[in-house]
Write a structure and sequence with these properties.
Tumour Suppressor Smad4; 6-stranded mixed β-sheet; 21 strands; about 40% helix; about 25% strand; alpha+beta
């Protein structure tokens, strides 16, 4: 009688000849053909074809498919000259690209390329050293953003010791020295201006430091203190602007979002996070979601048509009751100052939590602490002053846990802009770090996407 394993062997050979390599792999493994010499030879041929296909897939950018084929080949023969050759090629290419990224001052791209090797389980001392150097360069980049150029230089010095052949480290060290000297000179002027209470000069010098080190705590604190002293409200990230209620913005061009009316609103939809009603006015009215009811925040609940007002005053906010309103379970009949975390109860059971989470922004957030919903539906209400910060940190106005960096929507002159450390695509057009946004804009990058939706006039 013809042995059954030979039938399976023929099936596997046929699958291999017709390019059905995954089927051939399954037949070899499920029938344990590798315990027979013809089966082992077939497994070797299948593995070689898998390795060749894997190489082609890597070359055309199909990394996941290439990895699957390489793993399938390794599962068949564990090791072979063809498999070893492919791994060496992949490692050599990845290291070459990583060195090029480091030479051009792009440690994040180098890290991503080296992490690709790790996902393929291709590990070597060369790759480990390159990853350590890349991480030190990335650490230096972050330290430079904070203005800590001395510590950044130490990180780069360690990177030079690890990879002396990469010229980009020394070039970055020279850049650090230049920036450190610039910042030292401006910081001396800043301290002098603060000691002499020249607050307008403090603002200007703080902005100069933020050009050198965008995350400088010294400059941010100095700028905030200066604005507090001159009474212009809390300073926020550069280029933002706060509108007072008695100021009418100039007419805007085309479809700019900041309309002539100070009560402009729009919906902000953040993919995989939620939707938010954004109010640009200094004052909002909260009331019942009823036909033709002209309120900023309409709630589907048993409320009066106009139940309460929430108003921005300077750096803070107040609530003005129109109908039955409680603040932290105490009934109020006059205007009260709001603090971060306060809970307002409108009527019987509509609870709103007030949040002003970001230390450098006057903007605030209202959260529905009861089971009621707004109309149009939203997960929260943002009272946007000069800026709105989205990102992974708890103090952000919109917390996006899966993001790695902050994104800022801010007001400048009569328009709205979006800014990020990442390259942005706004309405299908690429822009580096910052761009103007309009009604119904779509904003995305490699790690996030969000849309704006205008709300018709009321």
């Amino acid at each position: 009688m013809f042995q059954s394993w030979r039938l399976k062997l023929r099936e596997a050979e046929t699958a291999c000849e017709h390019g059905r390599l995954q089927e051939a792999v399954e037949l070899v493994r499920s029938s344990r053909l590798d315990q027979y010499l013809p089966g082992r030879r077939l497994a070797q041929r299948i593995a070689e074809r898998l390795v060749e296909r894997s190489r082609q897939q890597f070359q055309t950018g199909l990394q996941e498919a290439g990895r699957d084929d390489m793993n399938a080949a390794a599962a068949l023969v564990r090791e072979s000259d063809a498999l070893l050759s492919l791994r060496n090629e992949l490692q050599s290419d990845a290291l070459t690209e990583a060195y090029e990224h480091l030479d051009s001052g792009n440690p994040q791209a180098a890290i991503a390329r080296l992490e690709f090797l790790d996902r393929l389980q291709i590990r070597s001392e060369q790759a480990r050293v390159a990853m350590e150097a890349a991480r030190r360069m990335e650490s230096a980049r972050r330290l430079c953003a904070k203005g800590d150029f001395t510590e950044a230089d130490q990180q780069l010095e360690e990177a030079v010791a690890l990879l002396p052949q990469v010229n980009g480290f020394e070039e970055r060290r020279r850049w650090c020295d230049d920036q450190r000297e610039k910042m030292r000179h401006v910081a001396e002027q800043l301290h002098r201006a603060m000691s002499e209470s020249h607050w307008s000069e403090v603002v200007s010098l703080s902005d100069q430091i933020l050009e050198i080190a965008p995350e400088s705590t010294l400059a941010r604190n100095a700028r905030r203190r200066a604005w507090e002293k001159v009474g212009a409200g809390r300073a926020n990230l550069a280029d933002t602007q706060h509108y007072k209620r008695d100021e009418q913005p100039a007419a805007t061009s085309g479809d700019a979002l900041v309309a002539e009316r100070n009560d402009a609103r729009f919906l902000l939809w953040v993919d995989a996070v939620g939707g938010f009603l954004v109010c640009l006015g200094d004052e909002i009215t909260v009331g019942q979601a009823a036909p033709h009811n002209d309120v900023d925040v309409a709630i589907l609940a048993d409320l009066r048509r106009r139940h309460a007002k929430i108003r921005r005053e300077g750096e803070g906010y107040v609530v003005e009751p129109i109908e039955l309103t409680k603040l932290n379970d105490q009934a109020i009949d006059s205007t009260q100052v709001l603090s971060d975390g306060d809970v307002m109860e409108l009527g019987e059971g509509v609870r709103l939590r007030f949040r002003q989470p970001h230390a450098l922004s006057t903007s605030a957030r209202l959260e529905l602490a009861s089971r009621h919903r707004t109309q149009p539906g939203a997960d929260g209400v943002l009272m946007m002053a000069e800026s709105c910060v989205l990102g992974p940190n708890r103090q952000n106005h919109v917390v996006c846990h899966d993001w790695t960096t902050d994104v800022v929507l801010f007001r400048h002159d009569d328009d709205l802009y979006c800014r990020s450390m990442e390259t942005l695509e706004i309405d299908g057009k690429h822009c580096e770090g910052r761009g103007r946004i309009h009604t119904n804009s779509r904003i995305c990058s490699e790690e996030f996407a969000m849309s704006l939706e205008a709300i018709g006039g009321r």
